[in-house]
Amino acid sequence: MRQSYDAVVVGGGHNGLVAAAYLARAGMRTVVCESRHKTGGAATTESPWPEAPEFKVTRLSYVMSLMPPTIIKDLSLDRHGYKVFPMGPYYQAFPDGRSISIWSDDAKKNYEEIAKFSKRDAEAMPKWDAWLGGLADVLGPMLLMVPPKVGSKRPGDLADLLRMAWRQRGIDVRTVGDVTRLMTMSIADLLDDWFESWQVKAPIAVNGVIGTWAGPYEPGTAYVMAHHSIGDVGDGHLGSWGYPEGGMGAVADAIRRAAESFGVEIRTNARVARTIVRSERAEGVVLETGAELRAPVVVTSLHPRTAFLDHVGSANLPDDFVRDIEHWKTRSGVVKINLALSELPDFTANPGSQLQPHHTGSVEMAPSMEYIERAFLDAREGRAAERPFSDSVIPTTFDRTLSPEGTHIMSLFSQWVPAEWADEPHTEELEAYADRLIDEYDALAPNFKRSILHRDIVGPYEMEHEYGLVGGNIFHGELSVEQLFHMRPAPGYCDYRTPVRGLYFASSATHAGGGVCGIPGWQAAKAALADQRQGRLAGVRKLLTSA
Ligand SMILES: Cc1cc2nc3c(=O)[nH]c(=O)nc-3n(C[C@H](O)[C@H](O)[C@H](O)COP(=O)(O)OP(=O)(O)OC[C@H]3O[C@@H](n4cnc5c(N)ncnc54)[C@H](O)[C@@H]3O)c2cc1C
After folding, report:
1. pTM of the prediction?
2. Cα angle 455, 458, 462; round to 5
């Protein structure tokens, strides 16, 4: 069976849906092919416990911050159900019975909290926030730019991108220098330059290692912190994150509804087997069923190994590009644990299981820099962390659509297990790993273990085999310096185009990905539409109509 469209989008994750929405909005007859039974990809809300369908978990990604207002507005996402509750502070309880809460929007409270550990750090915190604000002035707009392409008439590397940002925004030389430092420093070294107490440094360091195959002492982790600190959730507070009502699946659903309102056709259970390439041009895709969907524009939002090596095939790609994709680093060692709780954790440091401010934000398990580092070293040495670290949230402190009254959902984003666990399920070891993390929380909040009603563990193997996140990397590829900006996904191909004409790349493995930001989908659609306007694809159309 053969059908024709103006555009085929491969993958119904949020980026695929964003790309499809923009293409259809511009008048293209667009179809999305999604292999799973539902759209959303890593932005998904599910009920993992058949015996308790009333509990819904945001199974992989869990908080929003990075989606630019342009996309939210263009797609009228608010009208389609997009609503985000800004979350509370970073909270860490310590074994000595103390705790710290760090807010993104309350300098006075921060001063009181931090001064418990160091007056000097309390005074440094507003300066740190202002410093991050300066960096966001550079990095924020850079995330929305197409990096200059190596080999094009425009100059093309990170330095040029910085120069462009500098010229356009009048940013001072010091800030450009600070951005350069971010690329090369470790988050631990950077925080040592600013703060003295480990109680302050450890919770901030978490953002430097989220989803990253690197401990806090590894160069480049300072940038990962910045990547996670330059968004907001529309509340005007830099670095703030929020819980979408209905979980992250509701964000994808809002984008899907927007896409459908522009006429996009969504096909689920439609796994793409290969991209049709003739004379170095994409002409459509073949589904696993053998059905052919022909179109002069193909946008793929899959992991680069799947999109290029499996679907296009090395024979249709330049050797250098094949080598770059083969060498693409795609490890995380992340384990996502979702819990249904009968009550909120009753921390010894902040007693009570009734709702309190510290329950409303990130309830961290990162009590010191050494704790985080040790967890990474364990995994790098080939075993699961003896004492896992976790960035955990309880979205039901705001969002009452996810669990019955009086109960809660807790989302534990934890690290690390060996990256190679993406090759085998390691079910029993993952259960033991989850037990150890739960014990760590129980030591700080003694009602924790007994409050657990159900648990769901998603390890690297499931991430790869169920969700297509090859190697278990949460961003389709590591956010390491050699894979950023003009290098994402490969030098010469950072403009959302690929070596195959008519094939565009919208995955989180492009500039501005990862995260649920929609920028790759938006940029890939813009590239396709620009090429359409310039008639570069006219030849393909002719071929297709004569085929
Ligand atoms: C555990 C975890 C926690 C995270 N936490 C956060 C967070 O809190 N906030 C945040 O902003 N980001 C977070 N992220 C990252 C973020 O979720 C991803 O970067 C983003 O969702 C990726 O979106 P995407 O559309 O590029 O790709 P995906 O979501 O991976 O979508 C690709 C889609 O393609 C489908 N597919 C695969 N193969 C085929 C095929 N052959 N044919 C057709 N379809 C196919 C997949 O099923 C999937 O639906 C997290 C990720 C994970 C895994």
Report:
1. 0.96
2. 145
